[in-house]
């Protein structure tokens, strides 16, 4: 009996399985023993091939659709194929040039850059491109400004190093004069520019406990302004998806109920966001085939992702979602190279502070 995970596959069985899967990935049709005999290059009888195929089926690596005498790989068989039966090559030079050319080199917000990455991944693979959006608090602060509003309110303008601008309105117990707000902004910019919001809050707590600190002297009438300006905010996590309609072109995903569940998952994003967060926590490329993702809407799909980041911090993940019948040897290098180029772009942006 062949080990279900393939450790005991002999050379002939591995070669036949590799041949079967490669053929299936090309045309999506069950592969028969006669085709395997011609394509594998093995000098064995059709009966021997049928026996090996029966063993592979017993091991759960291939299956026989009831409408055909041929066999197709199972998710377990595809997993073995990706893990040990193919040799991944670097992304071809022309594809790397395309990625470099189409990712915007100039100043742009991180969200715009990520949207471009999602669209580019979809165009490169003809699947759905997905990119998780990091929290804005993951980026260092570049500048803060205060604008007085009626009724003791203040508009807080936070500018981050990724060129994103965030506006918050703070309600104070009593109004502050314009010169007080300017003085507070100058102090906060001089002390905290270049730090992330979590780090700023830590420093603020220390300073606010010290009654002799410069911050308390400047904001003696309203220390809550500084604390409220950098307070944590709920939400902000998101996933950008491009090219969902590409998936309608694949017969294995064409079932209306399956498409409805898949598009609902894209629309709601909750499960997709959870999956991308799992992927972001693991270095390198992650691959989920069929039910491996743990989300029923993706049972008929494969998800290929790679994490990206800047300045030694992981910020999220990029990837594609497509049918399990995909050219893994091409898709994986595309996703990996895109994550690397995105990280490079974010690192360049961070050095402009």
From TrEMBL:
Q: Can you give the residue ranges of the Heat-inducible transcription repressor HrcA C-terminal domain?
A: 112-332
GO MF term set: DNA binding
The record's annotation in SUPFAM superfamilies points to: GAF domain-like, Winged helix' DNA-binding domain
The UniProt entry's GO biological process terms, in alphabetical order, are: negative regulation of DNA-templated transcription
**Database matches in InterPro entries:** GAF-like_dom_sf (IPR029016), HrcA (IPR002571), HrcA_C (IPR021153), WH-like_DNA-bd_sf (IPR036388), WH_DNA-bd_sf (IPR036390), WHTH_transcript_rep_HrcA_IDD (IPR023120)
What Pfam family is a match, any one? HrcA
**The organism's place on the tree of life at top rank:** Bacteria
UniProt keyword annotations, A-Z = Repressor, Stress response, Transcription, Transcription regulation
Record has Acyltransferase as a keyword: no
Q: Which Gene3D superfamilies match?
A: 3.30.450.40, Heat-inducible transcription repressor hrca homolog, domain 3 (3.30.390.60), Winged helix-like DNA-binding domain superfamily/Winged helix DNA-binding domain (1.10.10.10)
Q: Which residues cross the membrane?
A: none
Q: Which family does it belong to?
A: Belongs to the HrcA family.
Functionally, this protein is described as follows: Negative regulator of class I heat shock genes (grpE-dnaK-dnaJ and groELS operons). Prevents heat-shock induction of these operons.
What is the official name of this protein in its record? Heat-inducible transcription repressor HrcA
């Amino acid at each position: 009996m062949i080990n279900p995970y393939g450790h005991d596959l002999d050379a002939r069985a591995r070669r036949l399985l590799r041949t079967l899967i490669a053929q299936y990935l090309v045309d999506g049709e069950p592969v028969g023993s006669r085709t395997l005999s011609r394509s594998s290059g093995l000098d064995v009888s059709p009966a021997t091939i049928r026996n090996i195929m029966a063993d592979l089926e017993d091991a759960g690596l291939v299956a026989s659709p009831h409408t055909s005498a041929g066999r197709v790989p199972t998710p377990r068989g595809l997993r073995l194929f990706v893990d040990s039966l193919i040799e991944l090559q670097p992304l071809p030079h022309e594809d790397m040039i395309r990625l470099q050319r189409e990712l915007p080199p100039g100043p742009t917000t991180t969200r715009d850059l990520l949207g471009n990455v999602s669209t580019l991944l979809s165009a490169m693979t003809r699947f759905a491109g997905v990119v998780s959006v990091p929290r804005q608090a993951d980026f260092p602060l570049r500048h803060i400004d205060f604008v007085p509003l009626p009724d003791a309110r203040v508009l807080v303008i936070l500018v981050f190093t990724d060129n994103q601008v965030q506006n918050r309105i703070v309600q104070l117990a009593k109004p502050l004069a314009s010169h007080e707000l300017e003085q507070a902004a100058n102090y906060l910019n001089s002390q905290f520019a270049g730090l992330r919001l979590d780090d700023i809050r830590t420093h603020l707590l220390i300073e606010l406990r010290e009654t002799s600190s410069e911050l308390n002297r400047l904001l003696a009438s309203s220390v809550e302004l500084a604390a409220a300006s950098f307070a944590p905010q709920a939400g902000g996590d998101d996933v950008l998806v491009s090219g969902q309609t590409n998936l309608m072109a694949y017969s294995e995903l064409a079932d209306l109920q399956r498409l409805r569940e898949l598009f609902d998952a894209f629309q709601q994003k909750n499960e997709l966001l959870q999956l991308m967060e799992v992927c972001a926590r693991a270095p390198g490329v992650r691959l989920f085939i069929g039910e491996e993702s743990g989300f029923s809407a993706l049972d008929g799909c494969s998800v290929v992702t790679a994490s990206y980041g800047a300045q030694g911090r992981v910020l999220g993940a990029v990837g594609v979602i497509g049918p399990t019948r995909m050219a893994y040897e091409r898709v994986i290098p595309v996703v990996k190279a895109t994550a690397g180029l995105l990280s490079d772009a974010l690192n360049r942006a961070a050095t402009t502070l």
